[in-house]
Design goal:
Layout (H helix, E strand, L loop, with lengths): L9 E5 L12 E8 L2 E6 L3 E5 H7 L7 H4 L2 E4 L3 E10 L9 E3 L5 E3 L2 H8 L7 E11 L2 H7 L3 E5 L2 H5 L6 H9 L14
Parallel strand pairs: 5-9
Antiparallel strand pairs: 1-2, 1-10, 2-3, 3-9, 4-5, 6-8, 6-9, 7-8
Length: 188
């Protein structure tokens, strides 16, 4: 698959007719898309946890109230006990980081959370538990079935838009009025 057709760095926006409750009205940021499959993080679904609670479960101290109060997201139904930090990269190196683009990276190592707890983490980040994954060709078939809209991701939606507004904001990027989207999937 050529890079021209890669969805890395794009939003997958669930169409209203998508029946899977893991993705209903979901916005998924695609971290990696290639011939072997696709990995992404749902970015508009709150978990029941705040970051301070997750850090406490990991025996980590968090003195910063703003960090402890950060809402943790449900990143998807795969490996729900594993944490993912989607963030703007800077000159620091974390133990396990995948660079998505010049503007975004995802880190899965504990050191980034420790830095965040001390107020020394990335300037802009979101934390998710679990991820969304598709096997080779699976997402492409779902796209043919009109389950998703795709659009290049906008960092303002990731970091500045309220969770409950992200789906509408992402749909607006496509240039579609959300109220005009059908609840029924089909082909013209």
């Amino acid at each position: 698959m050529s890079n021209a057709s890669s969805l890395t760095g794009h939003f997958l926006i669930a169409m209203p007719a998508l029946g899977d409750p893991n993705f209903a009205r979901g916005v998924t940021f695609i971290c990696q898309h290639g011939e072997e499959g696709t990995m992404g993080l749902v970015v508009n679904r709150a978990s029941e946890y705040k970051l301070g609670e997750v850090m406490a479960q990991m025996q980590m101290q968090c003195e910063r109230e703003d960090v402890a109060a950060t809402q943790v997201l449900i990143g998807g139904p795969v490996m729900t006990e594993r944490g993912f930090v989607l963030h703007q990269p800077d000159d620091r190196r974390w133990d396990s980081t995948f660079r998505i683009s010049d503007a975004l990276a995802v880190t899965t190592s504990r050191d980034i959370l420790a830095a965040m707890a001390e107020g020394k983490g990335p300037a802009r980040a979101l934390v998710a538990l679990g991820y969304a994954g598709w096997g080779a060709g699976q997402l492409e078939q779902e796209l043919r079935d009109n389950a998703w809209l795709t659009v290049e991701a906008d960092e303002r939606i990731l970091f500045d838009t309220a969770l409950e507004d992200r789906w509408n904001a992402a749909v607006a990027l496509v240039g579609v009025d959300p109220s005009k989207l059908s609840e029924y999937a089909g082909h013209a």
